[in-house]
Amino acid sequence: MKKIASALSSLSLSALFLAVTSTSLWAQDKYPLKPVTLIVPQTPGGANDAIARVLAQKLSEQTGQSFVVENRAGAGGNVGTALASKAKPDGYTLLVTADSAQVINPALYAKPGFDPVKDFEPVAPLAKAGYVLVANPTFAANTMAEFISLAKLQPGKYAIASAGNGTLNHLIAEMLQKAADIKLQHIPYKGASFAATDVVSGQVPLSVQSMPSSIAFIKSGKLKVLGVVNEKRVAALPDAPTIGETVKGFGATPWYGMFAPAGTPKALTQYLQNEIGKALDDPDVRAKLATLGCEPFKGTSEQLAVIVKDDLVRWAKIVKDSGATVD
To answer: Which one of 105, 159, 218, 255 is least enclosed by Cβ atoms within 10 Å?
Structure first.
C-alpha cells in the first residue's frame, strides 16, 4: 500500500509539474500563431497611436508574428475600449490605450460601455508622454502669465481646440480654466492631429496637445509652447516651463498601457508583459519614444492594476472639482 501511495504521490507531482510546464510552454511556444490586433481607441496621429505603432513593430520582430494597429476612435475612446472588452480572451485582440479612456472616461460618461476593472486583464504599462499647451506663432502671449492675463481681460474670446469631447486634451483644458480662473471657448475636433493642424494654420489659436502630435510642429516653429502640462519639465523640451510653475498645483502626467479582455489566461498576459519589457529595454525603441517626446514606463501587470484603481479614484475627484463635462 505504501508503494502504491508513493507511486500515486509521484504521479500527482508529475502531473502538477506537467500542468505548470505546459502552461508556460503554451504561452511561449504556441502564441502567437497568427497576427495580433492592437486596438487603439483614438485616431491616428496622437500619442497613443504613435506609441502603439512603435511597440507593434518591435513585438512583430521579437515574436515573428505581425502586431497590427487598428484605430477604433469615437466617444473619447469609449468605442474602441468597449469593442476590445468584448473580444475573445485569446490574446489576439488587445487594447493599447491612454489613461484618459481607461480611468477618466468612467467619471465623464454615465455609460462608457465598459468596466475598466472587471472587463480587462492588465498586461503592462507602456509609456508616459509629455503634454503641452501650444499656440499659433502669431498669438499675442508667449508665456503662461501673459496668456492668463489676456484670457482674464476678455473671458470667452480665445478658442482652444481639443481632440474631441471628453478626451484628455479637453479635460486638461477644462482643468486649466478652473485652476487659472479663466474662460476659453472649446472647439472639439475628431482627433489630435486635426486640432494641431488648425492651430498651425491659424484657424484656432490654442490647443492642448501631446508631444507626439505636436513636437514636429514645435521644432519647426509652426507652434509655440506656452507651458508644459506635466508635473515636471519634459526631456524633449528642457527649457519649456511647466504650467504648474505659474499656476500652482496644476499638473498631470498621462500614461499608456496594454490590456487584454477579462478571462485571458495569466500565462499569456505574463508572456506579453515579458515581451513588452524586452521591447522597452531596446535602445531603438527608447530612441523612437524620445523622438516622440515620450519615455518608457516599464512595469508589471500587478503594478498597472494598482495604477488603474488608484487613478479611477483620483480622476473622479479631479473631474468633479474641475466641473468638466462632455458637451
So the answer is: 159
